[in-house]
Amino acid sequence: MELVLQEMKRMMAAIFLSPLVPWQKINSIKTYVYPKDAYRIHHIHDNKA
User: Fold this and answer.
1) What is the predicted pLDDT for the residue at 16?
2) What is the rounded distance in angstroms from the CA atom of residue 25 to the CA atom of residue 48?
3) CB of 4 within 8 A of CB of 41?
4) Among 1, 14, 23, 33, whose Cα sits 20 to 30 Å from the Cα of 7?
5) pLDDT recorded at residue 3
6) By the 8 A CB rule, do 4 and 36 touch?
7) 3-state SS, one letter per residue, for the chain
8) What pLDDT score does 46 carry?
9) 36 CB contacts (<8 Å, ≥6 apart)?
10) CA atoms within 13 A on the CB side of 9
11) What backbone phi and psi angles, to 5 degrees, belong to 32?
């Protein structure tokens, strides 16, 4: 789970630091970050539980 959150943070930081205009940044997050991480979070197997 921690790796998933770190990857999500890295992707979002890259988008926010890019020269895109604000609406393009939001669109990029909705299109690329959320779907990828939603899938990964739903299908993660936490060995600590």
Assistant:
1) 94
2) 35
3) yes
4) 23
5) 80
6) no
7) CHHHHHHHHHHHHHHHCCCCCHHHHHHHHHHHHHHHHHHHHHCCCCCCC
8) 62
9) 11
10) 6
11) -110, -40
What is the rounded distance in angstroms from the CA atom of residue 35 to the CA atom of residue 37? 6
Residue 35 is predicted with a pLDDT of 86
CA separation for the pair 22, 46 (Å, rounded) = 35
23 with 15: CB under 8 angstroms?
A: no
Q: pLDDT tens string for the chain (49 positions)?
A: 678 788 889 999 999 999 999 999 999 999 988 888 777 777 776 655 5
Among 28, 37, 47, 30, smallest CA distance to 6 is for 37
